Amino acid sequence: MSTDKPALRVGMVGYAFMGAMHSHAWRTAPRFFDLPLHPELAVLAGRDGRAVKAAAGKMGWADTEVDWRALVDRDDVDLIDICTPGDTHAEIAIAALEAGKHVLCEKPLANSVEEAERMAAAAQAAAAKGVFAMCGFSYRRTPALALARRLVGQGRIGTIRHIRAQYLQDWLSDETAPMTWRLDRSRSGSGALGDIGAHSIDAAQYVSGLRVTGVSGLLTTFVNERPLGGTLVGLGGQGASDGGTGTVTVDDAAVFSARFDSGAIGVFEATRFALGRKNSMRLEVNGSLGSLAFDFENMNSLEFYDGTQPAETSGFSTINVTEPVHPYTGNWWPAGHGLGYEHGFTHQVVDLVQAIADGVAPSPSFDEALGVQKVLHAIERSAANDSGWQHV
Amino acid sequence: MSTDKPALRVGMVGYAFMGAMHSHAWRTAPRFFDLPLHPELAVLAGRDGRAVKAAAGKMGWADTEVDWRALVDRDDVDLIDICTPGDTHAEIAIAALEAGKHVLCEKPLANSVEEAERMAAAAQAAAAKGVFAMCGFSYRRTPALALARRLVGQGRIGTIRHIRAQYLQDWLSDETAPMTWRLDRSRSGSGALGDIGAHSIDAAQYVSGLRVTGVSGLLTTFVNERPLGGTLVGLGGQGASDGGTGTVTVDDAAVFSARFDSGAIGVFEATRFALGRKNSMRLEVNGSLGSLAFDFENMNSLEFYDGTQPAETSGFSTINVTEPVHPYTGNWWPAGHGLGYEHGFTHQVVDLVQAIADGVAPSPSFDEALGVQKVLHAIERSAANDSGWQHV
Amino acid sequence: MSTDKPALRVGMVGYAFMGAMHSHAWRTAPRFFDLPLHPELAVLAGRDGRAVKAAAGKMGWADTEVDWRALVDRDDVDLIDICTPGDTHAEIAIAALEAGKHVLCEKPLANSVEEAERMAAAAQAAAAKGVFAMCGFSYRRTPALALARRLVGQGRIGTIRHIRAQYLQDWLSDETAPMTWRLDRSRSGSGALGDIGAHSIDAAQYVSGLRVTGVSGLLTTFVNERPLGGTLVGLGGQGASDGGTGTVTVDDAAVFSARFDSGAIGVFEATRFALGRKNSMRLEVNGSLGSLAFDFENMNSLEFYDGTQPAETSGFSTINVTEPVHPYTGNWWPAGHGLGYEHGFTHQVVDLVQAIADGVAPSPSFDEALGVQKVLHAIERSAANDSGWQHV
Amino acid sequence: MSTDKPALRVGMVGYAFMGAMHSHAWRTAPRFFDLPLHPELAVLAGRDGRAVKAAAGKMGWADTEVDWRALVDRDDVDLIDICTPGDTHAEIAIAALEAGKHVLCEKPLANSVEEAERMAAAAQAAAAKGVFAMCGFSYRRTPALALARRLVGQGRIGTIRHIRAQYLQDWLSDETAPMTWRLDRSRSGSGALGDIGAHSIDAAQYVSGLRVTGVSGLLTTFVNERPLGGTLVGLGGQGASDGGTGTVTVDDAAVFSARFDSGAIGVFEATRFALGRKNSMRLEVNGSLGSLAFDFENMNSLEFYDGTQPAETSGFSTINVTEPVHPYTGNWWPAGHGLGYEHGFTHQVVDLVQAIADGVAPSPSFDEALGVQKVLHAIERSAANDSGWQHV
């Protein structure tokens, strides 16, 4: 792409599902948005030299490294994009920030509150030097959820009373689905709770503008042993086992109730056992003036109930969130021509590049992501204590 | 109606919303179903003699009483149908059963576990003499929910992992909606929890065939004072106040998580503050082989996901539950011609009359309703104890 | 029902599906609506004396006749309700009107324009003497469609450009479904066109307030021979054949385009071969200010798009048409507690009784129904002439 | 992108909405699919040198031309992608094919049958030399519609009886929306009929495998004069006028009925005046064994009714068409993570590149597109002749 804009040279660690997604976002963002800096897909890092080279060719990265430390040390990289499992986030992110690189880190921020706190401290120290960090809660950039937040901000919902959030998947419903790193606590930190429940918590707080102050939680594991050696399909699907089983050490499902700082209450559920629900990330907000409902399986729509309309014609309106007036959508196709899952990641890159160019901290910051981590931790504490209430 | 069938002479106490509904059911059931006994709308009881006479004329009752005790004492009444607020259920039901009358009692069975236990004991004693009691959890007789239970019974859902139930109404969202007996703990026993949450608990147990063994609950009241003197519209709607306010002494909303005897987990929510949701009684069940989803706002449909179908064509099927093969519907209209809210009550009468004629105990029995009452009580205990787990 | 209101003594001819429905309506209307006259289910007429007596007992009629002429001659009958196949409508209705009886006649009004014209003339003559006639296009009294008309009348839709109407059933999809009178042109007049297409035409004109001025039509018959002797289920379903086949002499499906007097255009489809659609009577109206969409399979909902709302929040609103402000619904249950197919018939009786008491002509009049008949006839002419345009 | 695959050097004419879309497809296809040839975005052609250079930089094209003839003459281009208005298609496509370049031409193929016939002849001549042409009916590559065709091919639908297709947009509902080239017959050939109705015809034939043999049509123009000088938004939206009006010389809406070669019948509607419908491209197919329904506003879903299931559980299933077994989707994200409008164009490029590499003619061929053109022409003839039947 010919351009005279200053470059933002990106180095990325990891190139699985999330790496492919982030690569697409970096490539695509400047084609549809007028960015102040031009992202360059400079270096891709991964431990297997041969595989990382192949991935770089496929995804469009100019160079490769086999050690993320070497990537962090390079002078010709401005930003480190971390797409690895959660147990590596803290070490890479802190090193990158200390090396003066901006950081985009996938969620959940870390596998423990302690790690997240160190990352947030590193981000604050870096911000003082104009180096910024962002956590990849990409659902915020789904146009319908960004519109939801806007409507709350406009006062269209009034005083919020209820938030109900469900993140329903089903890829573990089959008891013969194979073991993956996502089911190993030492790698992933937690199961459905941290992987998808974290999205629900962030989305609930983002859309409502409220903060969770206390929780009561219940975690459960339905299938304790799974076959080893399966080939992953998508998020973990079925595959042939080559013998033996591995022990699932994370939660298969999490439910929790919450109080928010305003007095609103919430009820949350995250599971990989909701047979038939593929990626049903649902959020509903009920206030004194209006209500909102969203389901990612219809990601281009937002349901809005305007309680100030007369009863004769009031009802939930299905807003097709593809109009030029809606968040992000004006840069894409005409109204009614829907977007897909990946667009949230492209929008994330757009906002991050803009923030860096403007010298302002992007959001969600590591502090915000630490806040989510604390909620996750409180849920785990509650679950371990007979669901007793835990302040966050 | 000319008939040579033996009569079942019904006496009813109460003639508000539920009384009008039950009257319709008693009048209509023999027109569409071949009942072994012929229900006669014999006597309507209410404290205001003039009003009860007017109601009897409107609703089709042959005679009236101003004292329910006089009704219970009459020799020409075979069954007492109790449509009064919950604080009167125990006294009337026990007296009626002791007087040898069958009893149909609206839900919730009582305002306390202690009352419910006495009622269940009276029902057991009466059953030994061929006198039967039933509690009016009418949603069980919605064809879609009866079909849901049938599919679970057929093994189509497999091992159940998740139950999520929401009962969402919005008639208290408006802070100026007037005070009613339903918001006075001394009359109603509890708020959203007992009024609508009880339906969700019964429906969850009925459809799944499982029993709740423990809960963690959270109750909240959003609006503590409401204007007095309003004229009720429907369930309590808006009306002009003639001065002063009354204190709301019940929960506006209840959320709770549950474990079932099989290891399944559940998450429940009952509220009158879900703006835009009018009578959204939702139930979703996820199992190892299939899933079910229902929303009373589309009461003629049941969503069914058959996980045994190949992935290429699997999806939630919207079953239009109006075919002759579906529960109850063959006695009504051709397929696709939907039923309404009241049909569940007509079906309830049909099953009750059949059970009495057969000399078998109808369901839900007072024992089953006592079980629901114990769950409600455990939720209240948990809510009063920082959401700590309570065994049922 | 004890009452001091003047009686309206009803005699009904026919007691199949529609007869059961009308009986329910006559019985139920006075229980929920404050009628100026009290309907009495006086006499039921049918050719088979034994069967008509059984039906009368089941449905609540006080007396029976085996000859509709005898019914028409009785002095103790004020209104004749005609629930027979279309080939008998003209003779019965004209005789009844001439005998000074009010008439409620099921749709389609007649099997030919000529019959319909004679009926309309008889109705006009009778009206001059205070005797009234109404045709049973009951869908008009579905609350959601009555609300649709109200919104058009309020100008909420603006200038109407498009009407699209589909009436989709599937009970003939199975080629082995048996022959019925509905497939015999000499009895039914036409097939899908007159049976269900007539409803769509009436609903389109009723909701829009416009009149069809010209049409182009296409009729087709997919299955020409069907087994004889089947037992009908519902509208005609499957049954065991006892040998031989009958020839289908009506259309299985009809499609037609239309122009309305305002310049709006319409596209219609009526079929009994839309596999999976049970009673999907859909109507969509697009205007310059708003749009409406309805599907009888979700009969308690109306979709309304308010084009005057800002683009940011505009979308089709799903109005749950069960509020007290909505047509008819305030007399039934609280908001969100849906109605069923039969309520339209009860509302029809309510409006008819009110009109008779007020001495004003009820709607739809025989003239209006004649208008529908003329549209049906123009479609048949067009279909017989290579779909060439036919003025109505 | 580093690759050792042979290059396919692409030259594109036009860079408005469709040009941006095609550029994205060319850039993205090799990142997610394993293509046998590597597409290079070699040259972009447009009349305004400055604008085309800016567009090339933004969209990723290496070089530019200001004359499409110069582009066609270049030796370093293998394929010409035509994204200009319909009046230029024939000239460019024929020249390109004669110059030995493969051609991808946007739909509708041409503005007249005569042009389309010449193009089809040129394509046949070129094919003999291994040079291929494809018409851009991109909706075929929407996974849900590709799945629909697959199910028809598997016999899951049985004998098709009904096809109903609607393409509903609303961007002209506002009478003050400005004049655009799309409303000028000399540029666009026709209005809603050719622009969006053509998609419906192609999709109907593609999914069903049937061919339209005759039609009856009705065209109408609701707004005859529109303000000049507006700035287009998306497909033509609102803009400020700088004086005067232009005459709309195309249809605003088209409705037509059709017969297919199998005896099935169809009803079609295409309009830009369906207020509230943004891009509602709907297709429903009813057969003897199953039915299918699709709406592009929920493009990741296909509704499938399997009539071979028992009545108890049969219903329309909402297939979330994002599973690895579904067409195209396995190359993207995990199940449930939906795709957007642009993916159909990427898939189109994938299939085109594969066909060229394999030396087989891609589909839809110019012959197929000529077939659509003939249907369009027959509709126009019918509309001009009182909707009389026209054979195709």
UniProtKB/TrEMBL annotation, chains A, B, C, D:
Keywords: NAD, Oxidoreductase. The keyword RNA-binding does not apply. Transmembrane segments: none annotated. Gene3D superfamilies: Dihydrodipicolinate Reductase, domain 2 (3.30.360.10), NAD(P)-binding Rossmann-like Domain (3.40.50.720). It comes from the Bacteria. Residues 8-126 form the Gfo/Idh/MocA-like oxidoreductase N-terminal domain. Residues 147-292 form the GFO/IDH/MocA-like oxidoreductase domain. GO terms for molecular function: nucleotide binding; oxidoreductase activity. InterPro entries: Gfo/Idh/MocA-like_OxRdtase_N, Gfo/Idh/MocA_oxidrdct_glycsds, GFO_IDH_MocA-like_dom, NAD(P)-bd_dom_sf. Pfam families: GFO_IDH_MocA (PF01408), GFO_IDH_MocA_C3 (PF22725). PANTHER family: BCDNA.GH03377. This is Gfo/Idh/MocA family oxidoreductase. It comes from Arthrobacter bussei.
